[in-house]
Structure formats: structure tokens, C-alpha cells
């Protein structure tokens, strides 16, 4: 088990730096968005069992834990989108490879305020009714 953990840690810390961490976070957020899409398809499928069953499933989304997962989803979509644009710029515009770190910082300058604003509106009903 120790070898697995060591190998995992070496994979995460490989060379480090913004490019590597952007790569890891891009994959994690992509998986999060994909899992949401599966869940979304499944909860929409429940409507075939009647309005009452569908309403019961929708009621689950008002749960505080689900609200926190929604915040993760919102962050994932925003980060994945803007980091994806950064990847496109770096891949298709050769001079941009020299400013990769700056572009990653720019992604965070955009993503953090948008995510925090969305988190506020998503979590406010839990705290303020």
C-alpha cells in the first residue's frame, strides 16, 4: 500500500509548477462535470415515474450537502471553461507558451470572484432562510 501512495504522490508532484497543477485540476473538474451530467440525466429520467417521484428527487437538491456539491459544480464549470481557453491559447499561439504562468494567474483572477459570487447565491438560502 505504501508503494501505491508513494507512486500517487510522485504523480501529483511531478515537476510541480502552475502548468502541472492546472493539468491536474482541469482533469478533476472535468470528471466532476461529467459525473454531474450523469446525475442530471438520471434525475430527469425519474420524471417517467410521475410528478410526485420527480418532486421528491428535486427536494434532495435543497439539502445543505447538495448545495455544497453545487458550489463545487459551479466552480468546476467555471474553472474548466476558463482553463480550457488558456490551454487553447497556449496550444495555438506559440508566443503564449512563455506567459503560461501569467495566463494561469489570469484564470484564477477570473474564476475566484465568479465562483465566490455563485457560492454566495447558492449557499445564502441555507444561512439566511
Percent of residues in β-strands: under 5%
Q: What count of structural domains?
A: 1
Query: Quick one: CATH class?
Result: Mainly Alpha
Biggest pleated-sheet summary: none
CATH topology descriptor? 3 helical TM bundles of succinate and fumarate reductases
Low-confidence stretches: none
Structural class: mainly alpha
- Name the assembly state: single chain
Distance between the termini: 46 Å
Describe this structure in words.
With 129 residues, this protein is an all-alpha fold. It has one domain: 3 helical TM bundles of succinate and fumarate reductases (Up-down Bundle). 84% of the residues lie in helices and 0% in strands. The protein is built from 5 helices and no strands. It has helices at 2-12, 17-45, 51-60, 64-92, 100-128. It starts with a helix and ends with a helix.
List keywords for this structure.
129 residues; mainly alpha; 84% helix
Summary of the model, kept short:
With 129 residues, the chain is mostly helical. It is built from five helices and no strands. It has a single domain, classed as 3 helical TM bundles of succinate and fumarate reductases (Up-down Bundle), CATH 1.20.1300.10.
Write the layout of secondary structure elements.
Blueprint: H1 2-12, H2 17-45, H3 51-60, H4 64-92, H5 100-128
Helix pairs in contact: 2-4, 4-5
Amino acid at each position: 500500500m505504501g508503494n501505491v501512495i508513494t507512486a500517487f504522490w510522485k504523480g501529483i508532484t511531478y515537476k510541480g509548477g502552475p502548468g502541472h497543477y492546472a493539468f491536474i485540476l482541469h482533469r478533476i473538474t472535468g470528471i466532476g462535470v461529467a459525473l454531474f451530467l450523469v446525475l442530471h440525466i438520471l434525475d430527469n429520467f425519474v420524471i417517467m415515474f410521475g410528478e410526485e417521484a420527480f418532486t421528491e428527487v428535486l427536494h434532495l437538491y435543497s439539502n445543505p450537502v447538495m448545495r455544497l456539491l453545487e458550489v463545487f459544480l459551479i466552480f468546476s464549470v467555471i474553472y474548466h471553461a476558463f482553463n480550457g481557453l488558456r490551454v487553447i491559447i497556449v496550444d495555438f499561439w506559440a508566443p503564449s507558451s512563455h506567459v503560461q504562468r501569467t495566463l494561469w494567474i489570469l484564470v484564477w483572477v477570473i474564476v475566484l470572484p465568479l465562483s465566490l459570487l455563485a457560492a454566495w447565491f447558492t449557499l445564502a438560502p441555507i444561512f439566511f432562510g
